[in-house]
């Protein structure tokens, strides 16, 4: 019984990381119908900068906000130079190639400057595990699912109760009409990418004490976050979080009763199957066509 609880708890932890990354994809797609395929690297940037600043003697409570701010600026730059010039319509795919290329360059630069050896980011909440029905979990790990759910509600409140959030929703529904109503569509797009990148950095900082910090740490996490967003439906934030948790739990049970290799095979196979069954996403609203 303790094994099942252990897999459930650890699955919720990694699933929450996927969910936070996927929320970033949701924010970008909602704003401009395009995403940053280097979004996994914003996760890495947050973790790497936090570790680097810690080495210089800067306390984490100062270093973490700096890392998140740098990631947000990176998101704005990506939108301005790699997405906006190449996103001219539904059939435009140039932003895919440009963001992937920038992601590869960022990873190479971090490898040169930060080094190829993985590092760790200490957390005071990783000292003593909490034992629950024979399963052990650290307070830091419990913080991650709470953060994912808290970010979901914060994002929902932001969209509903702030002028900027309402403007972002308006741009998502109809950019041309929003522009005619006086909303700065380009500014909204930049802010959306900044917020998404900040969420990516938060995910990286939360994951850093659990996984090793390296230049490539965001590659697989970013890919799985994107898949979670696609499976859930890019336009449903709650669905993104639900699918993130579910996928993380599935992975941990497969890994626990099988192997790490089986985890990837089964996980991606389930993703492909769900895409075949729900090509627009499990939680995508049904479209009604009037004739």
TrEMBL record:
Does Iron-sulfur show up as a keyword for this record? no
Q: Where in the cell is it found?
A: Cell membrane
Q: Name the principal localization, coarsely classed.
A: membrane
Per UniProt, the keywords (alphabetical) are: Amino-acid transport, Cell membrane, Membrane, Transmembrane, Transmembrane helix, Transport
Which species is the source of this protein? Pseudazoarcus pumilus
How is this protein named in the record? Branched-chain amino acid ABC transporter permease
Q: Would you identify the family this protein belongs to, as annotated?
A: Belongs to the binding-protein-dependent transport system permease family. LivHM subfamily.
Residues spanning the membrane:
6-29, 41-58, 95-115, 130-155, 191-213, 225-250, 265-283
Name any one Pfam family assigned in the record. BPD_transp_2
Biological process according to GO: amino acid transport
| GO CC terms of this entry | plasma membrane
What superkingdom does the record give?
A: Bacteria
């Amino acid at each position: 019984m303790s094994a099942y609880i252990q897999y459930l708890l650890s699955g919720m932890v990694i699933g929450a990381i996927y969910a936070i990354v996927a929320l970033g994809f949701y924010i970008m797609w909602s704003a401009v119908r395009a995403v940053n395929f280097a979004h996994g690297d914003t996760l890495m940037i947050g973790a790497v900068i936090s570790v680097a600043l810690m080495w210089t003697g800067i306390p984490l409570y100062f270093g973490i906000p700096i890392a998140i701010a740098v990631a947000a600026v990176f998101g704005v730059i990506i939108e301005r130079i790699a997405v906006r010039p190449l996103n001219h319509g539904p059939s435009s795919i140039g932003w895919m190639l440009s963001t992937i290329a920038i992601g590869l360059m960022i990873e190479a630069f971090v490898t040169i400057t930060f080094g190829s050896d993985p590092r760790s980011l200490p957390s005071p909440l990783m000292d003593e595990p909490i034992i629950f029905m024979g399963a052990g979990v650290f307070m830091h790990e419990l913080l991650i699912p709470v953060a994912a759910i808290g970010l979901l509600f914060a994002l929902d409140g932001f969209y509903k109760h702030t002028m900027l959030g309402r403007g972002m929703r308006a741009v998502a529904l109809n950019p041309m009409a929003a522009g005619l109503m006086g909303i700065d569509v380009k500014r909204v797009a930049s802010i959306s990418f900044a917020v998404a990148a900040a969420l990516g950095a938060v995910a990286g900082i939360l994951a850093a004490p659990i996984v090793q910090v390296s230049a490539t740490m965001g590659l697989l996490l970013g890919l799985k976050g994107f898949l979670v967003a696609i499976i859930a439906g890019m336009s449903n934030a709650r669905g993104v979080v639900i699918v993130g948790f579910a996928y993380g739990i599935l992975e941990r049970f497969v890994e626990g009763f099988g192997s790490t290799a089986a985890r990837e095979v089964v996980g991606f196979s389930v993703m492909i199957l769900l895409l075949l069954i729900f090509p627009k996403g499990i939680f995508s609203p049904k479209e009604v066509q009037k004739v």
